[in-house]
Design a protein that fits this description.
78 residues; mainly beta; five-stranded antiparallel sheet; 40% strand
Length: 78
């Protein structure tokens, strides 16, 4: 398989709002920047945990956080 069959997009994150949230999930997060792809090929993780993408534009992704796994340590202010 040749790499010429693939198109790679370089994304740049400029800001993430809010900068903190609950470990219980359900927080809407807005990521702004450039070069974001389509809904089908975009993955967002916060603290190593998936954030479910709800909408995407070339300069903005909105996702909803999931609850942190029970076995993952939580450090307030992190």
């Amino acid at each position: 398989m040749s790499l010429s069959m693939f198109h790679f997009i370089s994304s740049v994150v400029e800001s993430i709002e809010p900068t903190s949230g609950s470990p219980y999930g359900g927080q809407s997060v807005t990521v702004t920047g450039t070069g974001f792809g389509s809904l089908s090929n975009t993955r967002v993780e916060i603290g190593g945990n998936p954030c479910d993408v709800k909408s995407i534009e070339p300069t903005e992704v909105i996702c909803t956080t999931r609850a942190k796994p029970e076995n993952q340590k939580f450090y307030p202010g992190e």
